[in-house]
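Pipeline run #58 for the internal structure catalog. This entry was flagged by the ingest filter as a single-chain record with no existing model, so it goes straight to prediction. Upstream metadata was stripped on purpose; only the residue string is passed forward. Reviewer on rotation: M.T. Logging verbosity set to normal.
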Amino acid sequence: HKEGRAISVGLFRNVFKSKTREPVPKQWRRIFFDHINAGIIGPFYGSMPFHYATAHNKIHHRWHNDVGDVHTNMDVDRTVPSSFVLWIPRFVAYWTGVTPLLLFWKRKEYRLFKDLSYGMAYYCTLSFLVWYNTDTFFYWAYWLYPVLEAASFLGGIAYMWHAFSDESDPSNQYVNSVTIL
């Protein structure tokens, strides 16, 4: 959930050593690999830098698909296919960082707002540079398509993930966390 941090740090735990064989502090390793994944690798997979660390962890995991979650699906009738068509724009706004940014501002969580803003500004700047310096095919195939693919694929997963809710207690985490595939 922290954009692959555990995997990247685990695989490259002993890569950075000083001449005295003292390991580089964990904080610097974490920052280095988080930024490599979030800023360089992640965008080619349709991921907004720092999105999971802020929006996913601090909104979705805090509110557990309840009404405070910006991409909740509690109000969606999953027995009607058109509900997915109505819900997917909500997920796209979440995935691109728009609705989490607005929620952080509304809740006065300015540190999270700043972190996500930096990630979005970095992504938009990089998007412009990729568009400006490459041909149209590369931009669409390797930059824009992964965002659309990730939003639709992960949107479909998120649509079904919290498939059940208790009408008498909609915030019951034990019921709305059940997933049956």
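catalog note: The first helix runs from residue 5 to 11.
catalog note: The two ends are 21 Å apart (CA to CA).
status: ready for reviewer M.T.
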